[in-house]
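Sample 3 of the quickstart, ligand NAP:
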Amino acid sequence: MNRENHIQTIFGAGQVGVPLAEMLAGRGFDVRLVRRRAPGRAMQGVTWMQGDVTDATFANDACRGASVVYNCTNPSDYHRWHGVLAPLFNGARDAAARAGARFVVLDNLYMYGRPERTPFAEDTPMRPCSEKGRLRAELARGLFEAHERGDVRVAVGRASDFFGPDTPNAAIFRPQFFQQLARGRAVDLMGDPEQPHSYSYTPDVARGLMTLGTRDDAVGRVWHLPVAAQLTTRELVERFAAASGRKAKIRAIPSWALRAVGVVVPLIGAVAEMLYQWEAPFVVDDSDYRRTFGGEPTPLDDAVARTLTSYGVTRPLAA
Ligand SMILES: NC(=O)c1ccc[n+]([C@@H]2O[C@H](COP(=O)([O-])OP(=O)(O)OC[C@H]3O[C@@H](n4cnc5c(N)ncnc54)[C@H](OP(=O)(O)O)[C@@H]3O)[C@@H](O)[C@H]2O)c1
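Result:
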């Protein structure tokens, strides 16, 4: 590695930004990890920077000399993306362009809408069926227009719903889920738990982004990052329960109830808008990534065990 490609900037120190920083630092890069809140835990090779990606002067400082800029930001409020998400994406993209850096973007799957076939691949047409999805589609198009114009070299990694250590903002496998599991109580699930669904393990997502940042053949397109869990939501819950020595207890929240509450509670309304993903098979084809880069996701048993350990869920003592 020569000196010029030593610096890597990550905007967003959340569920994926942090493990990505640790992995890049482990590879010997000088990592700048950016968020607005105060710096988090110290990591060797990682310099925390406190600031706002939408502040161009700050973003320029954060990207100065960087060879790769990663966008792992997300708005803090799930129900307030309008007017917030685009400045995050565009702020990071423009700072990467000014620095002459490759721009690697962590993205979700909202832009596809209800896929007509499953599993769906990177060439599935973007037919969003939600406000959030329309926004994502618009931003995805904007990114590749910037790439085509030669403003910035772009690589996009798309992931499905997260699980993993320290995922406070995951749709289902979040701290409350593991608290309920540890107490032997029923876990709440939205949508239809019997539908197949892809779940991405956050360390695999971080590793996938690192590949997009370091491999030249990754540039100029979208990649579906390796998916650790391709099963029904009920089956994944059962894997967590079995690995923790408990019986799975599920309480399905009726979709009509979520939609009704969503009319008056904006956050629930934003969740209800995306329910379609759990009402039909929602399975991602990640074979192109695997074929090209040779990366396999973490074996599911290991991913489940590491996630349980991180949440302190241990097997109950024998009576
Ligand atoms: N959650 C999922 O299950 C999931 C699944 C697939 C894909 N994704 C996608 O993955 C991406 C990252 O999401 P995530 O859930 O990993 O994010 P996250 O854990 O919520 O972290 C977001 C980070 O962005 C930072 N941030 C927000 N606004 C900022 C600003 N103006 N300037 C600088 N930093 C800012 C936040 O810190 P501060 O608030 O301190 O600034 C935080 O560190 C998003 O595009 C998301 O849609 C998420």
